[in-house]
Design goal:
6-stranded parallel sheet; 395 residues; 17 helices; formyl-coa transferase, domain 3; elongated; alpha/beta
Length: 395
């Protein structure tokens, strides 16, 4: 057995990040996946970002271990191949715009008529209904509409900012993966297959509102906090780098002040409740800590913070992360040689299953159409490969 999802089969009809990463997370945990791509160029993420041939870095991470088949689903013979694959499938994932799956004949009702216990994940941008449901969507639109970009403002910055990552895509993929495995569990208990709908907008709002919209969750609260409990967090500049420290409670506030030689003994600052009533004084202590910290090196600050058991992190550039001693100890990154892209260094699946250990059957993402012939044979259409290719239905 390779992972807890060993034996589970996925058919993926998606592009970009949300659908491919959701399927990729399942593959990381042992599932098999056929990725059906549309010719002539396939998934758009093959061409975006750092790229070797038709493998981009993002495509590699989202699609490692899958099989790629180029099949024209708009042609009846292409649709037949897809339909013939369904009896052996457990999961279908698609992220078409509203109405596209219905036009192609691959919507839930179409799939369920062939495979009644299928788990069908229907991923969309804004949702299946409503005034925005017809819109084409990328991550930035969801960061804007969900409040994620607006939430990046703070006490000294009232301009919205985008997170410098495609966070709405990624968190939706993780939400979808969890929902799919929950549906698989329900099926095991006799609930049968089901249709799952997840919009990027809903996933992003659910993610943000855990801690990023305090005053909206409890509008009648006695005490109103900043919109996010982390809104006041700022890097602390040192002589040769930066650290990040969160100081929500009394132990951390006074310990940090002591380390950097700042007197915090004022009774108005004794407890968190006192500091909330005296925000100008609290802000003054933070400013003094910032000023004094510039005389400390990262190594000096690390020793002092560890001695006081204050939670902190040294701020790393992405180029430095793989060389961090803890990352090395965790064996977080793994390397292999991709047949066309060359050396690949990528993070391993983060969860370690000790009862059903995971091991990627294939660490490389597939080239476009790399597995078309074998997928067509599995669909029972092996005798038609030459004709299908000549007609442009497969590639």
């Amino acid at each position: 057995m390779t992972g807890p999802l060993d034996g589970i089969k996925v058919i993926e009809l998606s592009v970009a990040i949300t659908g491919p990463l959701a399927a990729g997370l399942l593959v990381d945990q042992g599932a098999e996946c056929i990725k059906i791509e549309q010719g002539p160029t396939g998934d758009i993420m093959r061409r975006l970002g750092t790229t070797v041939g038709d493998i981009s870095s993002c495509f590699q991470v989202c699609n490692r271990g899958k099989r790629s088949a180029v099949i024209d689903l708009q042609h009846p013979d292409g649709l037949k191949i897809f339909q013939n694959l369904l009896p052996d499938a457990d999961i279908v994932i698609q992220n078409f715009r509203s109405g596209v799956a219905e036009r192609l004949g691959v919507a839930y009702k179409d799939v369920a008529s062939i495979k009644s216990d299928i788990i069908y994940a229907d991923l969309s941008g804004f949702g299946p209904q409503g005034p925005y449901s017809h819109r084409r969507v990328y991550d930035t639109a969801i960061q804007a509409a969900s409040g994620l970009a607006g939430n990046q403002t703070g006490m000294n910055d009232d301009h919205p900012k985008f997170l410098r990552q495609l966070i709405a895509d990624k968190l939706t993929a993780h939400a979808a993966c969890q929902a799919i495995t929950a549906a698989l569990f329900a099926r095991e208990r006799g609930a049968g297959g089901q249709h799952i709908e997840i919009s990027m907008l809903d996933a992003a709002i659910a993610f943000l509102f855990v801690d990023g919209a305090d005053h909206e969750i409890l509008p009648e609260a006695d005490r109103v906090w900043l919109q996010s409990m982390s809104a006041s967090n700022t890097p602390i500049e040192l002589a040769d780098g930066h650290i990040a420290v969160a100081i929500p409670d009394d132990f951390e506030f006074h310990g940090l002040a002591e380390i950097f030689g700042v007197d915090s003994s004022d009774p108005d600052l004794k407890r968190l409740s006192d500091r909330l009533k005296n925000l100008p004084k609290t802000k003054g202590i933070r400013q003094k800590i910032q000023e004094n910290a510039t005389s400390f090196t990262v190594d000096e600050a690390t020793i002092a913070l560890e001695s006081k058991q204050i939670p902190f992190g040294v701020i790393r550039d992405v180029e430095e992360v793989a060389d961090d001693p803890q990352v090395i100890a965790n064996q977080t990154f793994v390397e292999h040689q991709h047949p066309t892209a060359g050396r690949v260094m990528q993070p391993r699946p983060p969860a370690r299953f000790h009862g059903t250990p995971t091991e990627l059957r294939e660490p490389s993402a597939p080239n476009l159409g790399q597995h078309t012939d074998e997928v067509v044979i599995e669909a029972g259409c092996g005798d038609e490969i030459n004709e299908l290719r000549a007609a442009g239905i497969i590639a």
